[in-house]
Amino acid sequence: MKIGLLSNTNMDFVVRQLRQGGTALSVYEPEGYGNELGMLLDGDSSYHAFAPEITFIIEDLMELLGHDLDLCNAEAKVESWFIEAESALRTDSIYYISDAYLWGPELDVVQESGRKAALEQIWQKRLESCVLRHANVRILPYRRMIEKLGEEAAFSLKMWYMGRILLSGEAQKRLCACILETVETETRTPRKVLLLDLDNTLWGGLAGEALQDPVKLSEEHTGLAYKNLQRVILQMQRQGVLLGIVSKNNEEDAMEILTGHPHMILRPQCFAVKKINWKQKHENILEIAKELNLGEDSFVFFDDSPAERALVKELLPEVAVPDFPEKAEDLAPAMIKIYKKYFAKPVLTGEDLEKTAQYAANAKRNELKNAASNFEEYLRQLQITLGRVEPGLFSGRMAQLVNKTNQFNLTTKRYTQLQLQQMLEDKEKRIYLYRSADRFGDNGVIAVVIVDTSGEIPVVEEFAMSCRVMGRRLEYAIMTDVEQDIKTAGFRCLRGLYLPTKKNKPVAELYRQLGYRPIQEQPDGGTVYEIEMTQIPERVYYVVKEAEADERKSNCVD
Amino acid sequence: MKEKVIALIEEILKVPSGTVTEETMIEDVEQWDSLAHVMIIGALEEKLGISIPLEEAIELTGMKELLEKIG
């Protein structure tokens, strides 16, 4: 991984520390310092020759303002910095730009107590709008780092005078750690589900004995430590972490606390799945994996009992089992570490924010599946709709589908931000992005198909679908829609490619099921399939196209 | 205190223990460039509470002088 660090102050020692860090990182060595815009704007600079995959821009606001604390002037300077910087962004690099912490000796004699915050806010607003406009720009939480360390420990006037080094040794160390953590977050696949025990984990004491001895969950002492742990978990849930309960209790006792206890932060609807019973925990976890259609490596298991943890570790080695803190006051900090280590994502999409509702709806669908007498009846009752959306408007989600889908992925080709951008602009690539809903709720954008039409016969070079909606014959509806469009464009045949991986067995027979015939085996184990438009068979599926569904709805109103 | 100062300097320079002695001259240690020098002056203050005035810090040539200033 190649990274670069640009700043308007001297960050050379941070660069040196990163280079000596013994990591697999390759770090750009800047020429001189303080020339961050020059490096960005000059296409021939050593920075562009190095072409970092992630560029960190640490901008000192006071330097940028030239110590002019006038709000109007600040607006103008910040605006012009961003206009220049934005004009020079490479599409193949991800950028982390620092948020602002204003520091300078004169601030201590400024009478107006709100001036510092007002100036920082100007930077913040402009930075946020930059992030909205550029999918590859993110915010580096620099300000939070300074605040946690404290201004007096974070800056050194003497070092500033000696070499325009703004940050103290300790602050530089933390900045290094923050950069390494960010790189890690950008490169790993985050886990999806946090499985929680109840007794002595989400609250102190035992639900089953609550009548004699109330559980510890309150606004004080140990009870508050548990409440704060729940606050951290709730925030994680809001940011797309799915929660599950795996607990040995009488369900009735536990539910009484979950629904009725005045200090519970996590209520039943916060959990995508609940296994409150006396079965072995690893069995429950396997059931959950099946119900949510996720691999074992999607789970983190949090339980106070060393015996339960050891058993899960032993029997389900791919489930992450972090240590449980010994002291109640360490509960919330331990959970923060778990979030950063296993769940944090560089960007949250709209999909992340609605995840729990989607998975909980899935659980309900499974109930319907059990109730419906046969599979086709079940699909009919689901009232599934399917519609195309404009790929350019959902490029973040498209990247997620292409790069993170393992099971329903015919080729498992991964693309960089730049490649995806180029494909969106390429007239010879037809990109189909689909969303789907049913009577239990909206599933959001769930599938992408990319067809390359540059050759004589168009080829489906990418087909990925979210595992949330697998097993509903949506793929039949999707390919039928794609084939229609390709046919309308005047092509007589369509080809599809299947490249086997460890994880995509579920779709190994897809093209055959769709009526395609294999025409060529590739040396890499892949198979090319083909179908003639006139030979497309009748396919049985129960999916209504979105426009038709809307029509039907308006008919009902009439 | 001398040992602590030397250990801190060696840590910042990322050199093996024993590289820096009471007699070491700054120009003789490759890693002790101007950037490392600023970090050393900063760390002495941050970690050990030793404050060397700015102008003297810039003119330092070796360990002997440095240790004299610390007293």
Draw up the topology in text.
The complex is a heterodimer of chains A (558) and B (71).
Chain A: E1 2-7, H1 12-20, E2 26-27, H2 36-41, H3 46-50, E3 54-58, H4 61-65, H5 71-87, E4 94-98, H6 115-133, E5 137-140, H7 142-149, H8 151-154, H9 157-163, H10 169-187, E6 193-196, H11 221-238, E7 242-247, H12 251-260, E8 273-276, H13 281-292, E9 299-302, H14 306-315, H15 331-343, H16 350-353, H17 355-371, H18 375-382, E10 384-389, H19 395-404, H20 417-425, E11 429-438, E12 441-452, E13 459-465, H21 474-488, E14 493-498, H22 510-513, E15 517-521, E16 527-532, E17 543-545, H23 546-557
Parallel strand pairs in A: 1-2, 1-3, 3-4, 4-5, 6-7, 6-9, 7-8, 10-17, 13-14
Antiparallel strand pairs in A: 10-11, 11-12, 12-13, 14-16, 15-16
Helix pairs in contact in A: 1-10, 5-6, 7-10, 11-15, 17-18
Chain B: H1 2-13, H2 34-48, H3 54-59, H4 63-70
